[in-house]
C-alpha cells in the first residue's frame, strides 16, 4: 500500500465493503466454492443457504470453516488443518468463479460508482476477503483503476468487526475520518467502520444481516435508494454533530 503524504484539504472518499455490498457474492459464490472444496476433499460437509447465512457472523472463510468443524466434533488440530486445506482450495475455486463473470455487482452499484467518480470522490475498498480473489474480482468487473486503495483480509491481523481494515485505508490515503464514509451490508462491517470513526451507510442484503444496525447513519434496502448526495450528506452530518460536541477530527 502506498501511503499518501498530501493534506486532506477538500478530498472526500467512499470506502466500500465487497462481500454482500458491491457483490451478492456470499450465497451463490463463496458458499458454492466452499461446498465444492469440501466435496473434492471428501470432508462430508455441505452448507445449504440457511446454514451458510447463520455462519456469516464469523468473518473470514478459514475461521468460518474452522469454527464449524470444531462445533461438529473435529479435534482442534484436525479442524485447523482441514480448515486451512479446504480454504486454500475454496479460494482457487472462487477465483475461477470470479473470473468467469458469474459474480455480478449488485444492481445500482455501477451507477453509484460512476456518479461518485464523476463528482471527484475517491473510491476505496475495505474487505476481509483474501486478496487472491478480491483484486481479480474488482478489476475484472470494474476495471483496474476504479478503486485506489484496496485493503483485504491479507493486510490485517484482525478481521472485521475490528477497525483495522478501515484504519489501514485511512493510513494509506492520509485522510482523517471526517473525510470518509463507509458502505457496508453487515453488522460486523458497521462495527468495523464505526470503531475506526467513519460514518457508515448500510445497504441491506436479503441474504445477510436483517438489522438493526446500531451505529449506522443510514440504512437502505438497495443501491437504488443510495445516491451520491445522500452518502456525502451523511459524512457532512456526522462532521456537523462532531463539531457541535467538540469532537471534530483534526484536518492534517
Ligand atoms: C466477508 C467475509 C469473507 C467471505 C469469504 O466479510 O467474511 O470471509 O465470506 O472470503 P465482509 P474469504 O463482507 O465483512 O468483508 O474466504 O476469502 O475469507
Ligand atoms: Mg460484507
Structure description:
This protein is an alpha/beta fold. 46% of the residues lie in helices and 9% in strands. It has nine helices and six strands. Helix 6 (131-142) links the parallel strand 2 and strand 3 (150-151). Helix 1 (26-40) crosses helix 4, helix 3 (61-71) crosses helix 4 and helix 4 (76-99) packs parallel to helix 6. The chain is globular. The model is unreliable at 1-6 (pLDDT under 50). It binds xylulose-1,5-bisphosphate and magnesium ion.
Uncertain spans: 1-6
Strand order of the largest sheet: 3-2-1-4-5-6
* Average of pLDDT: 92
Number of helices in the DSSP assignment? 9
Shape: globular
Proportion of residues in extended strands: 5-15%
| Cα-based radius of gyration, to the nearest Å | 18 Å
Helix content: 40-55%
Give the H and E element order: EHHHHHEHEHEHEEH
- Intertermini distance: 20 Å
Sheet having the most strands: 6 strands, parallel
Small-molecule binders: xylulose-1,5-bisphosphate, magnesium ion
- What's the count of strands? 6
Find the structural class using helix and strand composition. alpha/beta
Protein traits:
252 residues; alpha/beta; six-stranded parallel beta sheet; 6 strands; 9% strand; globular; disordered N terminus; binds xylulose-1,5-bisphosphate; binds magnesium ion
Briefly characterize the structure.
The chain has nine helices and six strands. It is an alpha/beta fold and 252 residues long. A six-stranded parallel β-sheet has the order 3-2-1-4-5-6.
List the helices and strands and how they pair.
Blueprint: E1 13-16, H1 26-40, H2 49-55, H3 61-71, H4 76-99, H5 109-118, E2 122-126, H6 131-142, E3 150-151, H7 164-173, E4 180-184, H8 187-195, E5 200-203, E6 218-220, H9 228-244
Parallel strand pairs: 1-2, 1-4, 2-3, 4-5, 5-6
Helix pairs in contact: 1-4, 3-4, 4-6
The structure holds xylulose-1,5-bisphosphate and magnesium ion.
Amino acid at each position: 500500500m502506498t501511503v499518501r503524504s498530501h493534506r486532506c484539504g477538500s478530498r472526500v472518499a467512499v470506502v466500500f465493503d465487497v462481500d454482500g455490498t458491491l457483490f451478492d457474492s456470499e450465497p451463490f459464490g463463496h458458499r458454492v466454492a466452499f461446498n465444492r472444496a469440501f466435496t473434492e476433499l471428501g470432508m462430508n460437509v455441505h452448507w445449504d443457504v440457511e446454514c451458510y447465512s447463520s455462519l456469516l457472523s464469523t468473518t473470514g472463510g478459514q475461521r468460518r470453516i474452522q469454527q464449524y468443524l470444531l462445533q461438529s466434533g473435529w479435534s482442534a488440530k484436525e479442524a485447523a488443518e482441514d480448515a486451512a486445506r479446504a480454504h486454500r482450495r475454496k479460494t482457487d475455486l472462487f477465483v475461477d468463479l470470479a473470473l468467469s463473470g458469474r459474480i455480478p455487482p449488485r444492481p445500482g452499484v455501477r451507477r453509484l460508482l460512476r456518479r461518485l467518480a464523476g463528482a471527484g470522490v475517491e473510491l476505496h475498498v475495505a474487505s476481509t476477503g483474501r486478496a487472491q480473489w478480491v483484486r481479480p474480482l474488482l478489476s475484472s468487473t470494474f476495471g483496474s483503476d476504479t478503486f485506489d486503495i484496496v485493503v483485504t483480509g491479507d493486510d490485517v491481523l484482525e478481521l472485521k468487526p475490528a477497525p483495522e481494515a478501515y484504519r489501514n485505508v485511512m493510513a494509506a490515503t492520509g485522510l482523517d475520518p471526517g473525510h470518509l464514509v463507509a458502505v457496508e451490508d453487515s453488522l460486523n462491517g458497521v462495527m468495523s467502520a464505526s470503531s475506526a470513526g467513519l460514518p457508515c451507510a448500510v445497504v441491506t442484503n436479503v441474504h445477510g444481516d436483517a438489522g438493526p444496525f446500531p451505529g449506522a447513519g443510514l440504512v437502505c434496502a438497495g443501491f437504488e435508494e443510495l445516491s451520491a448526495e445522500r452518502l456525502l450528506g451523511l459524512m457532512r452530518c456526522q462532521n456537523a454533530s462532531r463539531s457541535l460536541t467538540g469532537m471534530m477530527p483534526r484536518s492534517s
